[in-house]
Amino acid sequence: MMRYLKLWCSFLKMSAMADLEYRTNIVARVIGEFGWYTLQLSVFEVLYTHTTSISGWDVHSMRVFMGTLFLTDVVYMILFAENMDNIAAMVKKGDLDLYLTKPVNSQFMLSLRKVSISYFINLICILVYLFWAIHRLSTPVTVPQVGGYLLLAVCGVVIVYSCRFLFATLSVVLQDAGNMQFVWHQIYRLSTRPDPIYPKILRALVFTLIPVAFASSVPARILIEGVDLRLLAAAPCVAAGFLWLSHRLWNRALRHYSSASS
């Protein structure tokens, strides 16, 4: 574990040096992400000018949900997004071969080799917004709720990463699976809305087969509705299960990998 931690610290240092060479790109990314946050927030802010409750959640509860969505999203963007988006291109060009020959786990290398430090600015702003939203809740938040929230937020990030990596694995088998990235983004959009607004069949889907509800809805529920032991028990199991599945299918896919550079 210490070996991999030191390796990741080296990735972080190299990523910071690379990103700081192009400061304009950092500004552009920050502005782009804030544009996305504004668009997502505006949908619900407009809706709540016409109603006081949506599926039992008032505007303050919805703001906590949106803050949670932004938090898990920005952590994913910092750690994984750029790496995941480049896997398909690496397979097509044959660049994947270089990482498969390294004396470390290939999934680790592909998933964490680039850290997007520009999103740290977004992370700070999102934390401020989330603290403000939590403070506006009608009932005070307890310490067990905060602890459960942090656990579920971590599980949410792991689940999103694992699901995204499963789609990226298809690139190894199919060689050209660029459309899978589009499919993933359409599925991920289900996590940008609270699960109570979905019909029963779709709610069951986002909690089981494609558990993107754990990315934002489930952690937010702990702060809004109180501690739910069922969710606290289920989230780590789902996260561990999907992480194991992504690793297992990745190793299986590598058996069918044909280098594009050979």
Could you characterize the architecture of this molecule?
With 262 residues, the protein is mainly alpha-helical. The protein has 11 helices and no strands. Helix 3 packs parallel to helix 7 (143-174) and helix 7 runs antiparallel to helix 8. The protein is globular, with a radius of gyration of 19 Å. The model has no long low-confidence stretch (mean pLDDT 89).
Features:
single chain; 262 residues; 11 helices; mainly alpha
Structural class designation: mainly alpha
Please identify the oligomeric state.
Answer: single chain
Using the CA coordinates, give the radius of gyration: 19 Å
The N- to C-terminal Cα distance equals 33 Å
* Beta-strand percent range: under 5%
Helix percent reads over 70%
Instruction: State the total count of DSSP E strands.
Output: 0
Number of helices, where a helix is a run of at least 4 consecutive DSSP H or I residues = 11
Mean pLDDT: 89
Point out poorly predicted stretches: none
What does the main sheet amount to?
A: none
Element order, helices and strands?
HHHHHHHHHHH
- Morphology call: globular
Give me a quick take on this structure.
The protein is mostly helical and 262 residues long.
List the helices and strands and how they pair.
Elements lengths: L1 H19 L2 H25 L11 H35 L2 H5 L5 H7 L7 H16 L7 H32 L4 H10 L11 H8 L5 H13 L3 H26 L8
Helix pairs in contact: 2-3, 3-6, 3-7, 3-10, 7-8, 7-10, 7-11
